[in-house]
Amino acid sequence: MLKQLTKIHRRISFRAVIMLVIVITVAIALIISGLFVAGQTATNEETRTNQTIHNIGEAVRKNPVVLQHLKAYQAPESADNAIERYTHRIQTTMQVDAVVVMNMDLIRWSHPVKDQIGRSFLLRDDAAKSLNGKPHYSKTVGVLGPEYRYFTPVIKDGQQIGIVCITVTVKTVQAEILAVQKPILIGGLIGLLLGVFGAAWVSLYLRKRLLGMTPDQITAQVTELTALRESMSDGLIAIDDQHVIIQLNAQASQLFPALTPGNALTTDLYDALFHEAKAMNRPVAVRGKELIVSTTPLMAGKRNLGQLALVHDQSDYQQLVAQLAGTKQYIEALRAQQHEFMNKLQVISGLVELKQYDRLQTLVFDFHHDYQSEFGSLNSRIKLPAVTGFLLAKANEAHEQGKTFTVSEDSQLPALNETDTKIEAELIKVLGNLIDNALDAVSVKTGTVAVSLNYDEESRTILLEVADNGQGVAPALKDKILAKHFSTKGSDRGYGLALVNDVIKAHHGFLAIEDNDPAGTVMTVELPLVDKEDADDPSDDR
Predict the structure, then answer these.
(1) What are the protein's GO molecular function terms (predicted)?
(2) How far is CA 276 from the centre of its chain?
């Protein structure tokens, strides 16, 4: 049975279901209302009828014609008597079915059927109830069929001389009820017709609003889209035109734990993620995270509902790339040193063959001094291989550009614990942006960039300084250069220092921008080693 109902349900279209439900609802409402009104109308009509025959009966029993001509114990001399003529006028004028006047023997003096005049009232027991001077109502079957009756005594000079009976047939009352109910019935049919048209309009409207899909199709699509949304490797954030979040998947929640649907995005996150209404694979640096963001408007026809952003976190990849790059540069530096050492060993071997020991001693001393100044000293003081390789690579890059790059003799960084390894990639990120900016700021041949790296054991803080002798930073720009999208190098720039600033904020660190003496800029950074829970404080995501 259940399978059959399911098959029937599938065969009926969504539009038909909507129309059927609305039509049935309207029909039931109209039927219930009609029955209630019909019952109320019948009750009111019956009450009105009783009141009408009461008023007519009271008027007839007091009429002078009746009082003058009615004899208590005599039959009328003819059917065409004064009382009959009077009651006939009353019956016609008041639109009742019968006005019967009878004497105390219950002999009729008037009746709508002429041959009944002079004869005894048919239902004598019913009429006899008013022989005691009291009126009463009756509903029974008479000569004219089912009737409503009102019996009232005729009193003359304090004595009862007869009875007046006013009759309205049930057929007449029903005709009057039908006349009253007919407009109601017509109105109900009109209402039902309007309900059908309304159902058709509602079904078309819902079909349009639901994009022509049935509830089953909507349920299936919502289920599929929910599964698809939650299985995405990218974060999904959808907002309305008031910047209120309407959709957020699990990946987006992991990126920004404090975001919840129903709450509005903060200004900084909106500016970072939805800076452009429509963009593909736009790099964004926000709160220590390097993101790739694609945005698009949410459209329903020509109506703009808001915006959608797909966010891909590439921070882990960038950190891995930075570590691998630093390691690769370190290996390349070792290979270069190995190649150079092989050349030097060949020179040493030749001097030994020539027995030029004095020259050999001087040359070995020079080789040792060059190694300590270029590699050995740095490698012994900086215990982070990726950082060492990175600095050597930057030194080579500066040399190729005709600029001077140095690492201070007092620079020193110890090896880090396993829990602190993330700082190595972040340190390369900070150093890379600061050194690149410094190299861009200095001129060829005379330009110098000096780096200092140290570690404070007590506060577990890395202290670094990058100084150059370039043109420096104008005072008016010192408060702007850390802002996203701000750059003096052209459009689609301004991410480097913003990313540096985000990393420092994530570690609750410090960044100072000062003038160098006599020219250039000194960038000083304090980068505490903090626990991941502290660095990723969810309160910062709001």
Answers:
(1) ATP binding
(2) 23
Question: Does residue 372 have a pLDDT over 60?
Answer: no
Cα dihedral sign, 470-476-477-482: positive
Rounded to whole angstroms, how far apart are CA atoms 149 and 140? 8
Residue 442 clears pLDDT 80, i.e. is over it = yes
DSSP-derived 3-state class of residue 138:
strand
User: What's 164's DSSP letter?
Assistant: E
DSSP 337-382: HHHHHHHHHHHHHHHHHHT-HHHHHHHHHHHHHHHIIIIIHHHHHB
Q: What is the DSSP letter of 108?
A: B
Phi then psi for residue 212, to 5 deg, are 75, 10
Beta-bridge mates of residue 526 = 463, 510
Tell me which of 404 and 256 has the higher pLDDT.
404
Q: Residue 387 is which amino acid?
A: V
449/451 Cα distance (integer angstroms): 7
- Strand-pair category, 404-407 with 448-456: parallel
pLDDT value for 415: 82
Residue type for 432, please?
G
Helix (H, G, I), strand (E, B) or coil at 263: coil
- Measured CA to CA, the distance from residue 96 to residue 420 in angstroms comes to 109
State the pairing for strand pair 159-169/98-103: antiparallel
- Residue 468's region, left for phi above 0, alpha for psi from -120 to 50, else beta, is beta
* pLDDT tens per residue, range 158-200: 899 999 999 888 776 666 666 666 776 777 778 777 777 777 7
Three-state secondary-structure class, residue 117:
coil
Is 468 within 8 Å of 436 (Cβ atoms)?
A: no
Q: How many CB atoms lie within 10 A of CB 137?
A: 12
